[in-house]
Amino acid sequence: NGPAGPHDEL
Amino acid sequence: MNVFRLAGDMTHLLSVVVLLLKIHTIKSCAGISLKTQELYAVVFAARYLDLFVHFVSLYNTVMKLVFLASSFSIVWYMKRHKIVRRTYDKDHDTFRHYVLVLPCLLLALLINEKFTFREVMWAFSIYLEAVAIFPQLVLLQRTRNIDNLTGQYVFFLGAYRVLYILNWIYRYFTEPHFVHWISWVAGIVQTLLYADFFYYYIMSWKNNVKLELPA
Questions:
Q1: Does B113 contact A4 at a Cβ distance shorter than 8 Å?
Q2: Which of B11, B43, B53, B60 has the highest number of chain A CBs within 10 A, making it the mutation to test binding with A?
Q3: A6 lies within 8 A of chain B by CB
Q4: Distance of CA B122 to the CA centre of its chain
Q5: In-domain check, residue B44
Q6: By the CB < 8 Å criterion, does A1 face chain B?
Q7: Pairwise CB contact (< 8 Å): B180 & A10
Q8: Contact assignment for A8 to B56 by CB distance below 8 Å
Q9: Fewer CB within 10 A of the end CB, N or C, for chain A?
């Protein structure tokens, strides 16, 4: 599921 | 994507657009801290390293490119443009911003989601963004003259942070396991930095007087 953390945010 | 986050991204975009317009149209950066703009350029460069390797959405990629382009062009204008650079108030913009960079880097090495180069740089960008406004607020206190474009710039930046906190609250209640202390703590610290500016900005707007920050 991709890297940790809310990296879908800017 | 929720409405708070979209509104937050839009006010963030608005803050840089207001700033670019101010610099581009009146060819002046009076009242703007170059240090803060340089810190923001570093924040985006450090945070968007995954720009080409981790595709989230078209929106995400476009916004990253816009933020990178705008922050670096603002720095370019203030440092290189023959007319704008003369309006830069370097005597008052003396906050030693490297004092902010090093602790953020050390903190990122200690507290991060994963000890990888990209995650450490991401945490570094989160911590640095939290304090990036500091030189700008110091400059405003020093020069005390806040033209309304600069005031609007800081106001929109603060609004974007408040909206992001609302976004995190919304995501916490709607998405399982959405817990990210690094962003939350840094984001709350960052928003608190704007609190007093907000207070004086709204008071001056309400009493219809020129915005004055206490010395």
A1: yes
A2: B60
A3: yes
A4: 15
A5: yes
A6: no
A7: no
A8: yes
A9: N
Q: Note whether residue B215 is domain-resident.
A: no
Look at residue B214 and tell me if it is in a domain: no
pLDDT digits (tens, 9 = 90+) for B29-88: 999 999 999 999 999 999 999 898 888 999 999 999 999 999 999 999 999 999 999 999
**Tens of pLDDT along A1-10?**
344 445 889 9
Quickly state the pLDDT bin for B149 (edges 50, 70, 90). Answer: confident
Write the DSSP string, B77-94. Answer: HHHH-TTGGGG--TTT--
Distance of CA B186 to the CA centre of its chain: 12
Given CB atoms, is B90 within the 8 Å cutoff of chain A? no
The residue among B164, B167, B154, B166 whose CA lies nearest residue B195 is B154
- How many structural domains does chain B have? 1
Residue B113 lies in a domain: yes
Reported ipTM exceeds the 0.90 cut: no
- Expressed as residue numbers, the domain containing B191 is 3-207
Dig out the tokens for B120 from the structure. Answer: 């450490």
